[in-house]
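Sharing a chain and its predicted structure for anyone who wants a worked example. Both blocks are below, sequence first, tokens second.
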Amino acid sequence: MRQHRKIKVYYNSACPVCKAGIANQKVRMQGCPVEWNDVHSDDNLIREIDSDLEFVRERLHVVDESGALQIGFDAFLAIWRNSPTEGGKVRLLGQPIIRHLCRISYNLFAALLYQWNKRLKHW
């Protein structure tokens, strides 16, 4: 794996699906330069990325290795790009048409998941 600047991941642990996904990703990326920021534990973290708390609760945010903010599916690509075992996902899912379809799918899923979490009063 090539050396990268530390990426910063902003996620919402109050969502059980998000919490499980991040926990799994942390295991895959042990030893990788990643800062995991849980906005549920500290909602002041959103100031670092100049975003709205509800938007970060709905969609994954990542400051990538170049310092650019990636949101939603593009945030996943940034995480996988920095993982020692997930480069194949980036090569496949990063293809323009596939990436576009994945963005649409992610945005629909994230919106439904956000509404489900709100209905269940997870925050």
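Comments welcome. The chain has a mean pLDDT of 95.
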